[in-house]
Write a structure and sequence with these properties.
Length: 291
């Protein structure tokens, strides 16, 4: 029996669920903005770790081997989740003390430990180890963007604006226009209209935000479009992984959204790319130019 047969894919969401999705998303956005703008970075870091705990639980339950499913379902928390969250939490603490290299080492150590344990259990070791990076690197990127730059709050808000506008625009335009599917085998609900609409929405909203800071508005908008495209790609990547293991939603934690991974998937790759641009290439998205 295949994995997709052992884990039935739920039906499409109803219109009522779409409304619930919007309201729950709005609530979470308000909380995230509040955490980003308060003067203390510790609550933002702590909440990031908590979010990643739920994401890690969903990931490791999703990628487990069929033989481990029955055992894992009887455990309050999967041992792989503990490893991943321990690596993330210790890495985030290192970032808070501005020890970036140590943070990366801790994430790598967590991936190795995850692989070794899963290998001993014949439990898809590569997938479990990959989860440490897939969830851990965005956690480090988010906290680093909030803590390390002098204008970290504004960086985080810029990231949130682009990703949220992309997701919201894709949802609205996809529902209103429909049309040709973007990748029907990976994500039957995603359309070209939604994808283009999401990017256009991100461009329009980020233009208003960037206009407050950017003397080079064109470069700032190019950055916004690029990050929106990354968000779309990561959304498709998670859809492909879910299809690989026979899931439509990674969980049922968030009303109208599914699981935590379903809610933050677009943010994952976008946050890592954002951090690489800022810390690796010296890009300043608030000015639309290199620092």
């Amino acid at each position: 029996m295949s994995m997709s047969q052992t884990r039935p894919i739920p039906v499409q969401r109803s219109g009522g669920e779409t409304v619930l999705r919007i309201f729950s998303g709005l609530f979470m956005a308000i909380v995230a903005i509040a955490l980003a703008v308060i003067p203390w970075s510790a609550p933002f870091a702590l909440t990031t770790v908590l979010v990643m705990l739920f994401a890690a639980r969903e990931w490791h339950r999703m990628v487990r081997s069929p033989e481990m499913a029955e055992i894992a379902d009887k455990q309050p928390i999967h041992i792989q989740t503990i490893i991943t969250v321990a690596a993330i939490a210790s890495g985030v603490i290192a970032i808070m003390f501005r020890q970036v290299a140590i943070a990366f080492v801790l994430i790598c150590a967590g991936a190795v430990a995850s692989y070794v344990l899963a290998k001993q259990r014949n439990d898809n070791p590569a997938w479990h180890a990959a989860g440490v990076f897939y969830i851990g690197l965005p956690a480090l990127a988010l906290v680093a963007l909030r803590v390390l730059p002098p204008n970290g709050t504004w960086y985080i808000l810029a990231l949130f604006i682009i990703v949220w506008a992309t997701d919201t625009g894709a949802l609205v335009f996809g529902k209103l226009i429909g049309g040709r599917k973007l990748a029907p085998r990976l994500s039957p609900g995603k359309t070209w209209a939604g994808t283009i609409g999401g990017t256009v929405t991100a461009l329009a909203v980020f233009a208003l935000y960037a206009a407050l800071f950017a003397p080079n508005l064109a470069l700032a908008l190019l950055f916004g479009v690029g990050l929106s495209a990354v968000a779309h790609r990561c959304d498709l990547l998670e859809s492909a992984i879910k299809r690989r293991f026979g899931y439509k939603d990674s969980g049922g934690l968030i009303p109208g959204h599914g699981g935590m991974l379903d809610r933050v998937d677009s943010l994952f790759a976008a946050s890592v790319v954002f951090a690489i641009l800022v810390f690796g290439l010296g890009f300043n998205p608030l000015l639309g130019a290199h620092a």
